[in-house]
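>> received
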Amino acid sequence: MTAVTAASPSIFVLDANVFIEAAKGYYAFDLAPKFWNGLLANGTAGRICTVDRIAAEVMSPTPVKDWINTQFMPCVKASTGPDTLIHYAALMRWANAEPFTIAAKSEFATVADAWLVAYSRAVGGIVVTHEAFDANCKRRVKIPNACQHLGVQYINTFDMLRTLGMTIG
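>> returned
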């Protein structure tokens, strides 16, 4: 993982688990509205986004889906640009050439993860995810592994908050 500095002009592209895990636990809407307001403010300023396919994956909890649809939708980007498609195809070729299980390859081809990484590569973005790199993982294609293959930076939510100077208190 490459270090990200506060001066970095990159956009942070959020995985579904950033929204879902926050809402279910440590940043529940009723406990930490400043977290959600900060995501929205940084999204509006062009520092944070997600892609349409990730937004579509966020089906529950309902407050997250409602928040994305009513508040965050202007920060949801189309994942179908020509550069994204080129990087997506490269990820599919890579995944199919690696010793992942057939089920892992099939899942990777149908979920939003590859689109998230491909879009991030296309726009020079940094993926924000709770997943961790695992060189030995064969049952699932992990986002950090795909990021590493395409040379995309990735960090977790807490590092993104620190980089953006967001505080929740």
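>> The chain has one domain: 12-164.
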